[in-house]
Amino acid sequence: MRILTPSKKILLVFPMLTLTLNINAQDQNITLNQDPKFEQLLNDKRKINTSISTNDTYKIQIFSGKSDEAKKTLSNFKREFNNIDGTIIFNTPNYKVVVGNFKTRIEAERNLEEIRKKYKSVFLIKPSK
After folding, report:
1. Domain range holding 106?
2. Any idea of the CA torsion for 97, 103, 108, 109, to the nearest 10 degrees?
């Protein structure tokens, strides 16, 4: 290993210090021109989103098991009941197929009876409060 003498160290450190003093971050001001209606739309959307609650709807679980079977079950369900939404939820260790987004229990139970004709192990999921 080669040891530098103090004079050589100064010759190396001094240019490095002068270079670092000249480095500056970007100093730019950005002016954003925005339509005032945009802010109004955002406020309206915020009001609507606070009034929508996703947990106060009834759902129907039609399957619980392996991933491939859950995908097949959801695909078959969407083919048979194209007016009802469905999704797959992973809850360790099973994949669950949950369908519907019913606001009232009566509406959910009516659909439950129709779905029960095609799928055997179905049950109603109450909203969590």
Report:
1. 58-125
2. 150
